[in-house]
Automatic annotation (TrEMBL):
It comes from Albimonas pacifica. The lineage of its organism: Bacteria, Pseudomonadati, Pseudomonadota, Alphaproteobacteria, Rhodobacterales. This is Aminotransferase. Homodimer. It is an enzyme of class 2 (transferase). Residues 31-392 form the Aminotransferase class I/classII large domain.
Length: 400
């Protein structure tokens, strides 16, 4: 009898974490490496949020809390959804978890049965399909390409839906592409979903506040109120407030689903960190200046990187509407030979040779289900980004 569960054979370790760890190892060994693999802001958590956490400690808020969030935070989340998304929830329709990833995982664990299908537009965040597999479902990728700026069409969505479809996981702006759906584009997709009442929608709105004018963020249930009763609107404080390590995600949805997710959480992690919950409360209810300040910096970096990469031979880089990633195609580099003598047959070959030759760490697009591309995070200094792009241009210029 095997000791490890058979289900582990269905999933892969996170490629983004693997790249970040590899870059750290090379740096520790003395190699000059610029890491563009991590998906987190490089800014510090705003001071008033850190102060709130310290105050919570001093006030003795260090005990167990309600399994899926303190009442004050749930109320603040309700007010956030109403204020920013036009969505009305009560605290009983809110769940708070240890990061956005746990919100998604709890929902999948609470709803999927063997054979249930989950539609996932590709490129996708690396964890989506593996979480579906761990929950016993079947991930179904909807392929996109650079010609649609990595966005699915209504016809593609319609064609992908079957009687077995239970969820659509919808992420806008996207990790990894940064692509965001306009209100008109989203309305065309929700029109399709309205024809299929058995399909639920799980939104990942984590990059809601990192968007660049003239793009305006909107969420599915906001665009189509008819989807409200079968939408789980997921978000968190990680990206918007530079709080990745605090591990607080949240969602609003139908009460029956929220209760089922709480049952899963009660038997796994129980409550999220009490101190982090009070910090998240301060994030949602306190000054919002940081959001605009960070957006300005991220837009400047986006423009820098998109311009520089489009000057690299064999690379085509679309301009993303949001998040802090670019997702350039390296189709023009395939079949060429790297300085090491390695023929580049895949995007994984490209990023491996780039790291070893020039010390720039990015993540291969095939890990996100769409290649030949790579994801680079521009959540780092302008100086590092300029140097990284210079190295990428040199690497591409050296290909034969």
């Amino acid at each position: 009898m095997a000791f490890l569960a058979d289900s582990l054979a269905r999933v892969k370790p996170s490629a983004t974490i693997a790249v970040t760890n590899k870059a750290r190892e090379l740096k520790a060994a003395g190699k000059d490496v610029i890491g563009l693999g991590a998906g987190e802001p490089d800014f510090d958590t705003p001071q008033h949020i850190k102060d709130a956490a310290k105050a919570a400690i001093d006030a003795g808020q260090t005990k167990y809390t309600a399994v899926d969030g303190i009442p004050e935070l749930k109320q603040a989340i309700c007010e956030k959804f109403a204020r920013e998304n036009g969505l009305t929830y009560t605290p009983s329709q809110i769940t708070v978890s240890t990061g956005g990833k746990q919100v998604l995982y709890n929902a999948l664990m609470a709803t999927l049965n063997p054979g249930d299908e989950v539609l996932i537009p590709a490129p996708y965040w690396v964890s989506y399909p593996d979480m579906v597999l761990l929950a016993g479902g079947e991930p179904v990728a909807i392929d996109t390409g650079i010609e649609t700026n990595f966005k699915i069409t209504p016809a593609q969505l319609e064609a992908a839906i079957t009687p077995k479809t239970k969820w659509l996981i919808f992420n806008s702006p996207s990790n990894p592409s940064g692509a965001g759906y306009t209100e008109a584009e989203l309305k065309a997709l929700t029109d399709v979903l309205m024809k299929h009442p058995h399909v639920w929608v799980m939104t990942d709105d984590m990059y809601e506040h990192i968007v660049y004018p003239p793009f305006v963020f909107c969420s599915p249930a906001q665009v189509e109120p008819g989807l409200y009763d079968r939408t789980l609107t997921c978000n968190g404080v990680s990206k918007a407030y530079a709080m990745t390590g605090w591990r607080i995600g949240y969602a609003g949805g139908p009460e029956e689903l929220i209760k089922a997710m709480a049952k899963i959480q009660s038997q796994s992690t129980s409550n999220p960190c009490s101190i982090s919950q009070y910090a998240a409360l301060a994030a949602l209810t306190g000054p919002q200046d940081y959001i605009d300040e960070s957006r300005v910096a991220f837009q400047r970096r986006r423009d820098l990187v998109v311009s520089a990469l489009n000057q690299c031979e064999g690379i085509e880089c679309p301009e993303p509407e949001g998040a802090f990633y670019v997702y350039p195609s390296v189709a023009g580099c395939m079949g060429k030979t790297a300085p090491s003598g390695k023929v580049l047959e895949t995007d994984e070959d490209f990023v491996t040779e780039l790291l070893e030759t020039e010390g720039v760490a990015v993540v291969h697009g095939s890990a996100f289900g769409a290649g030949p591309c790579f994801r680079a995070s521009y959540a780092t200094s302008d100086e590092s980004l300029t140097e990284a792009c210079n190295r990428i241009r040199r690497f591409c210029g050296a290909l034969k």
